[in-house]
């Protein structure tokens, strides 16, 4: 059963990103929102870890949060808007928000 994992906290503040990456299933998706988009900063260990995820795991980033933080998504990440966020939640069988 595919799960959409949603992260919104900075990967530099705690270990939620690392914990999430360990639990991802082959058909899961990971959506970065809020301060979690800082994981996409070039040259960071967080971005390297995200780029090493299996190709079958989809990586998404909320476009509004990227723009607000002056970041650009790498090729690996699909940028979504709020309607896209809602569509992702409906597409996956389960949604897990890492609070």
From TrEMBL:
<dbReference type="Pfam" id="PF04077">
    <property type="entry name" value="DsrH"/>
</dbReference>
<dbReference type="InterPro" id="IPR027396">
    <property type="entry name" value="DsrEFH-like"/>
</dbReference>
<dbReference type="GO" id="GO:0002143">
    <property type="term" value="P:tRNA wobble position uridine thiolation"/>
</dbReference>
<dbReference type="InterPro" id="IPR007215">
    <property type="entry name" value="Sulphur_relay_TusB/DsrH"/>
</dbReference>
<protein>
    <submittedName>
        <fullName>tRNA 2-thiouridine synthesizing protein B</fullName>
    </submittedName>
</protein>
<dbReference type="GO" id="GO:1990228">
    <property type="term" value="C:sulfurtransferase complex"/>
</dbReference>
